[in-house]
Design brief:
The protein has about 190 residues and is α+β, with helices and mostly antiparallel strands. It has a single domain, classed as Gcn5-related N-acetyltransferase (GNAT) (Aminopeptidase), CATH 3.40.630. It has 5 helices and 7 strands; from the N terminus they run E-H-H-E-E-H-E-H-E-H-E-E. It has a 7-stranded mixed β-sheet, sandwiched between helices. The longest helix has 15 residues. The chain starts with a strand and ends with a strand. The relative contact order is 0.15. Bound molecules: coenzyme A (COA). Coenzyme A binds next to strand 4, helix 4 and helix 5.
């Protein structure tokens, strides 16, 4: 199957929100659609209470804004002209990193160590188990290497399928991609 991975850029904002409009994810209740707005750059957090937005309409509106301003970052998987997958990856997201590292004993790194974090996946249900998330991870790692990152960090969910944290991706997938320890992908 021919899958093309594209970096999310501001001009793709409408296509991005459309993917979340039409793709079943999470518990698949319309009002809970997330638009992946939680995982974004620190500079978009202006104060208390904006970690999550209470209505779907507001999350959609904010997602458009965050993509257009570059604080929501990641990669889209296209099958033809249709988006079939998403991986949220960002380097500038300390609030989110702190929360996800709390599931692990992951130490803080010195400021000169450049880390790209993988936060979330959504693969369209009918397109799962076709290697799309793996291709997304491979592209994150390739670009991170090209951009001078020291490593990619993932917050692996070892209890895959048993918790509401499947969005972090299965350990087996990261193993295939060459993870070291529990959470580092080194290229
Ligand atoms: C988890 C998820 C990202 C995997 O994406 P994918 O494109 O299907 O993954 P891949 O095809 O690259 O799988 C790579 C490997 O990971 C493992 N894997 C993937 N999905 C798995 C599953 N459902 N159960 C067990 N292992 C799984 C397998 O080892 C697989 O290799 P194999 O197919 O050769 O056995 C995808 O199923 C998904 O998006 N799920 C929904 C996550 C979610 O809830 N997101 C919404 C957040 S609001």
């Amino acid at each position: 199957m021919n899958i093309e991975i594209r970096k999310l850029t501001p001009d793709l904002a409408e296509e991005y929100v459309h993917f979340f409009d039409v793709t079943p994810h999470d518990v698949n209740i319309d009002e809970y659609k997330c638009y992946c707005v939680t995982w974004r750059s620190d500079d978009s957090y202006t104060g208390n209470g904006d970690h999550w937005f209470p209505t779907r309409e507001e999350r959609r509106k904010r997602a458009l804004q965050f993509v257009k301003t570059g604080s929501l970052q990641g990669y889209l998987a296209y099958h033809g002209d249709q988006i079939v997958g998403w991986c949220n990856a960002n380097a500038n997201c300390q609030w989110c990193i702190k929360y996800l590292r709390s599931f692990w004993p992951i130490e803080d790194y010195p400021a000169n160590v450049k880390v790209k974090s993988i936060f979330c996946f959504v693969i369209a249900p009918e397109m799962q188990r076709k290697g799309i998330a793996t291709q997304l991870v491979e592209r994150v790692c390739k670009d991170a290497a090209d951009e001078g990152f020291d490593f990619v960090e993932a917050y692996v969910n070892k209890e895959f399928g048993e918790t509401d944290h499947d969005f972090r991706g299965p350990f087996a997938m990261y193993l295939k991609c060459g993870i070291e320890g529990n959470n580092r992908l080194i290229f």
